[in-house]
Amino acid sequence: MGLWRLTSIRGQLVLVYLAILTLLLLGLGIFQSLTLRSYLRSSAVASVRRSAYAELNILGPCFIRSSADLQQSAFVLAKLLGTRDTAVTIVTPSGAALASHSMGPPGASHPLRLSGTTIRQLIANATPDVAGVPVSSGKCPSGTVADVRESGRHNPPVDWGGSLVTGGKTLLIAVPLGLSPNPVGYAILGRSLRSENNTASRVLLVFVLGALSVLVLAALVALPLINHALRPLRRVADTSAAIAAGDFTQRANLARSSDEIGRLGTAFDAMVDRLQSAIGAASASEERMRRFLADASHELRTPVTVLRGTSQVLLNQAGAEKPEYRAALEDMHEEAVRLARLVDDLLTLGRLDDGQYLAPERVEVRPYLEEFLDRYGRLWESRPIRADVVELDGAAAWVDREALRRILTNLVDNAARYSRPGMPITISGNTGPDSVSLSVADAGPGLTPEQAEHVFERFYRANVARTRNSGGSGLGLAIVQGLTQQSGGNISFDTAPDRGTTVTLRLKRATYERSSQADLSLPREVN
């Protein structure tokens, strides 16, 4: 079925090929039909004229000299000219019928039925091509009728007749009677074109059947040929799909040739080689950088902790008599705390990049939030925190406890850092059939759509609010996103200038049955 899909190149090529072939055959059929019908009708006209003129060129001028002769010999002349296939009507120059002879087999013959318009048209066409040329010399041979016929056969006939085809079925020919230039009447001969039409129809039917056979054979021949010609392109497409899926060892490996497909295969493989080398180099560089950050963060953790503890001790022992000394210690302690947070964030990101698993378990969300606010709420004393967790009664989430603490800490800390002073931070939640949602909203300046697109990027800070002076490292939301994804949830960001920011965390809702699976997950330390 895929071979016939119109969206594929194969299907389109086959359709175009068959369409062109169909148009050519159609044009040939029309030309052949018109030419054959014209030839058959010309042959019929020539046959009728030869038969009629064989008599008229001899008897007509010699025995039909006047209207009286025509009146007297009309029936004899009609019978003489008429045959089983040819009907005859003898008319006067004005178109009045004098005699007729029917055509057809005995008992089923029928005469010509002509309208006055048709008779006048035939008479008007029955004029010589050159004016003044007589039918005969006007001299009649002596002897019997047989002698006249015998001598007339050696004289070439002059064609004074006019022909007309009516309705596509009957051929009409008008022949003048008498001497030129004033015929005393006309013999109108009619012959059925049924035989010629049947012949043309049979030839057309044979042509149509032959054309259909040719189209079917052409399709059967074209399909495998086109399929074979496009097989290298299909291999390139399959190789591209495998490379897009991450397998950079795949190559098209097309046969080398000088045509377009061969050059395409060579260029494609060369491009993939360079791409693999570039990605390998970038991956190696990224791995070295990740390892360096992990090692550096791990090595810095101990001295930073010592520096932070020492500065805290010195700050507690500093007296008020040396305010500059105490201010220096406070600055040193704040920087030590900030450095400790940065090291902690780098360690967490390194573990997330390594794909280490968390230890999810069934967590009752409302009691967990209340405990979180009681324990950590004093960290943001300058920002009132409101909790709207009534809808979380009885709801449980499937999440790592330490990861959830780190997520909430970063979200609340981010809201407190960038919201306006004195404005509250709201923590709310709701439940769904399969999820538990937690939202942290602030009344800060918000972000533009362009800034919101980059909020989860590492070390990203908005131009106005997110600066180093505010204390942020630009890693908080990146850690939140990583921990949320490791927990099987997702996070969304709703913000606009002067409308504040709402971050919504959606976690999998836990059931009692799932709590028994907690021991199947590998433990994970989150700092």
In short:
The chain is of the alpha+beta class and 527 residues long.
Distance between the termini: 56 Å
Helix and strand content put the structural class at alpha+beta
Which band does the percent of strand residues land in? 5-15%
Q: Give a count of the beta strands, DSSP E runs of length 2 or more.
A: 12
Unreliable spans are 128-146, 151-160, 463-469, 513-527
Q: If strands are numbered along the chain, what order do they take across the biggest sheet? A: 2-1-5-4-3
Backbone shape: rod-shaped
Mean pLDDT: 77
Task: Please give a structural write-up.
With 527 residues, the protein is α+β, with helices and mostly antiparallel strands. 52% of the residues lie in helices and 14% in strands. It is built from eleven helices and twelve strands. A hairpin with a 7-residue loop joins β4 (170-177) and β5. The two termini are 56 Å apart.
